[in-house]
Amino acid sequence: MFPKWYFRPQSHRSASAFCDGLGKVLFCLTLCTGFFESQAFAKDKMVAPDWVKQASAQPMRAFPPKTDAVVLLHEVNVSVNAQGREVTHEREVIRILRAQGRRGYGSPAVYYNDTVSKVTSMKVWSIGADGHEYAVKDNEMIDRSSGEGFEVYTDSRMRYASPPSVDVGSVVAIESEIETRPYVTEILFPVQREIPVRRERLTITMPPGFIYKAVWKGPDRTKSVDMEHGTTLWEMEDEPGIDLEDVPLSGSAWALVSRLSVHYTGPGMPTPTLGEWNGIGAWYAELAAGRNLPNDAITKQAQSLVQGKTDFAERAQAIGEYVQQRIRYVAVEIGVGGQQPHAAGDTFSHQYGDCKDKATLVSAMMNAVGMRATWLMVDSRRGVIAPEAPSIAANHMIVAIDIPKGYESPLFQSTVTLKNGKRYLIFDPTSEKTPFGQLESGLQGSYGLLMEGKESEAILLPVLKPGANQVNRKASFTLSSDGDLKGHVSEERSGDIAGYRRHIYSEWNSNQQSQFLHGMLARDFTSFEVAEVKVSNVEDLQKTLSICYGLEATHFARVTGPLLMVRPRVLFTDGMRVDRKARFSPIDLNETRRVHDEYDIALPSGYAVEEMPEPVKLDLGFAKYESSSSVKDGKLHYSRTYEVREVTLPAERYDEVRKLAGVIEADEQSNAILKRIP
């Protein structure tokens, strides 16, 4: 299996926190999303064990007002035997601080894989705010699949319980033991989570002849302590919570979590990773060996796709788009199948697979026609993979396509060049609405592990230029003296920024599409009607997506006596939410892009310009914003260009982001004032 993450996420987040097999890690002592009211619980004066009472008796500290709960104690003890089998004993005690914490932390659970793991013991207790103690009976615990919905079948399971009297001030505790036969010898221990942690301990015991290497993501939170009999201890206290729920322009909290990764090996163990990227690459090469070999059917299909094409980019595009658009995303995860790709022949035959299966099929089809592509392990949460912390912690697999030396193509925008001069096109065959040659925004600027066996290395994924993601909007209106507006709107999108709109107009029904457009326009108009919506080039990702429609809006301009106040920026906002709080987390700008607006309003006769908004021009390096308004031949013309050139910024540049947000907001709300001519 993939490394164990000993962590308890809030239940409104994904319990496994990973989107597919590459990230299917085992969460022990985590929480389920279900919340049940069971009646038959043991209740005694002396039910909870002493370690639970000792943890719950410690003095409380002050926490931020929105802290749902606090971890009072978290202990993980992993024992590895000479055959490489693990026995994990874990304890955790949590105090509920807010009503919201009851659902998030009131139902403790163990996550496991029933092919390679066995829960040998699990006990759950609660101590109510009134001091009464409860123990959950074995027959009151629930065991079910923990799949996330995209799997045809998965052997990932969860066992959980919901003790009574879980309210503000109460304590919930769990103790479990799991026996595991791991496929990879790495243990992950995040030392932070969304809620504060008062005390936590990780203890690992190994037999003679075994060695380990500990790697930290982020600063070392503590030093290891060598105990007797092959035991090593790490102990931490008072770790703050990382809650980004109310933080604007924030990425994933997982990217900020400090984590300890312990790689170990010993006599007879599988290929060791030993805390090095090339070690992880060698391990995966062994795991995936032979899986990307083409059979006759794959070879025939690949040759058919590239027939008559001599240009490298055209040949690569034909294969990439076939797997991207024709192979359905479906996962079958059993044991090592959660990490090991299925044979390319099976994926091709079934016409479905998960991310690593689709990546493997791309590699096989390219092998069949004299091209080459390899696996690239990534994480959809920018910042989770860190070059200084080699780890198998990731949730996605894509491909890196070898580019011939000296070859160039305008189609290839998401390329990387290694120190040795080798060039690769980075492509995600799972991202169904991202044009071939580009990379979805969530992966840009993050790191990934290029799988080249013992030559594997962590590489920085490209950040595309703004021109790769373009939005061009044009509108022509006529304004009446009553302030009503009537006209026509067109919007063109190209690149990954068109992906969501392509999804809407290919997957949603007409009623949902209408609701979406009306929801967008309701931000700028109080009363309006849309007519004759036309959408073109939805399926062809290399063509510009076009959306056109008629629009009528009443009371758009405000009439005040002889004055008519008109907003030149008629519709669509490019503003961003910011706050005035101190900033500690990186700033996530989502994606690079270039947005251009051109709006014309034919003004009612008998009015003259009294006042016009000042032109705006701001260039902060990471973004540029320009706009201007003018009147000529009875028409009010508004032009705006907004470019975002980077996807992330350090926290210390938040003042610049605030400045940009303020400039955009002021420009979008500015008005031209017209006065009736006597």
From TrEMBL:
InterPro entries: DUF3857, Papain-like_cys_pep_sf, Transglutaminase-like. Residues 83-239 form the DUF3857 domain. This is Transglutaminase domain-containing protein. Residues 301-375 form the Transglutaminase-like domain. SUPFAM superfamilies: Cysteine proteinases. Coiled coil: none annotated. It holds the Pfam family DUF3857. Transmembrane segments: none annotated.
